[in-house]
Amino acid sequence: MANLLWLQSGGCGGCSMSLLAAEGPDLITTLESAGIHLLWHPSLSEQAGSEVRTLLQQILDGEITLDLLCIEGSLMRGPNGSGRFHLFGGTGVAMIEWVRQLAARARYTLAIGSCAAFGGITSAADNHTDATGLQFEGELRGGLLGSDYRSGGELPVVNVAGCPVHPNWVTETLIELALGEGAPERLDPLARPRLYADQLVHHGCTRNEYYEYKASAEQLGQQGCLMEYLGCLGTQAHGDCNTRPWNGEGSCTRGGYACINCTAPEFEAPRHAFMETPKIAGIPVGLPTDMPKAWFVALASLSKAATPQRLRENARSEQLIYPPTPQKRKQ
């Protein structure tokens, strides 16, 4: 049996909300079937106050083994490194101190969501709370625990990044670690689990035919590709959102909203509006992953020249106007 402790720091709780929407099976059934015992979660557990303080002290004293430490939300170091912007309720001790001590005891430490992984929304703009991720501060290694941190299982912090995370990203990562299958090669260069980070949001996007012909939507609600004008970063964002949709059918692009690359560090401060595609000389600044600029320009020109009228009209419409024409079989 692997013991799991879940703490929430500086964030909105959205990753827990997403996790609670896990289905087929539900979260608790999934954990139990994988041999994972939930020691405490602020939204799911009955213990409070002195009971939680006692539990945490038992972990620090070595009386209870901590196999999986999950931290949700960024770690707030302010003011002046004291961490007193966020005290763990009823303890008088800064959350960052609890996390440091518990991480030293954990077999595996997981950052749940982009706030815990990289700082996320909480660290945006002026960052008055001095918020950071567990082992990254934006794109830079370090964060609260430092770049050299390794858990008892000899892994860095596992960054289950997303805003919010897909519930299966969390449960599958927990199961993998509980089964003793965690290994450095299962993490990408940003320490994200490759089980979802080896794919792009672009894969499986229902707007891919429009993308191929560069038939673009120009306003929200239209059916065309969202990359050229509306800021979609799905060709660069690592995640299987469109091949593993939320609740079996939902994703940002399927809902008509551009991908903002929420699994990446510093997505929260792109220096332009989320729904705007920055360009230089008419060419999008953010090109698809592994796509040389000259190739993109050449292929885009050819694609636009070959765009079927059906796609050209449908791309700028809020509803399907022209369905594909059935091809007649040649005799």
Keyword list:
single chain, 331 residues, alpha/beta, Rossmann fold, Cytochrome-c3 Hydrogenase, Chain A, domain 2, 2 domains, five-stranded parallel β-sheet, two-stranded antiparallel ribbon, 11 strands
Structural summary, described in words:
The protein is α/β, with parallel strands linked by helices. The chain has 2 domains: 2-195, NADH:ubiquinone oxidoreductase-like, 20kDa subunit (Rossmann fold); 199-314, Cytochrome-c3 Hydrogenase, Chain A, domain 2. 26% of the residues lie in helices and 11% in strands. The protein contains 11 helices and 11 strands. The strands form 4 sheets. Strands 2-1-3-5-9 form a 5-stranded parallel sheet, sandwiched between helices. A two-stranded antiparallel ribbon has the order 4-6. Helix 1 (14-20) crosses helix 6 (167-178). The model has no long low-confidence stretch (mean pLDDT 92).
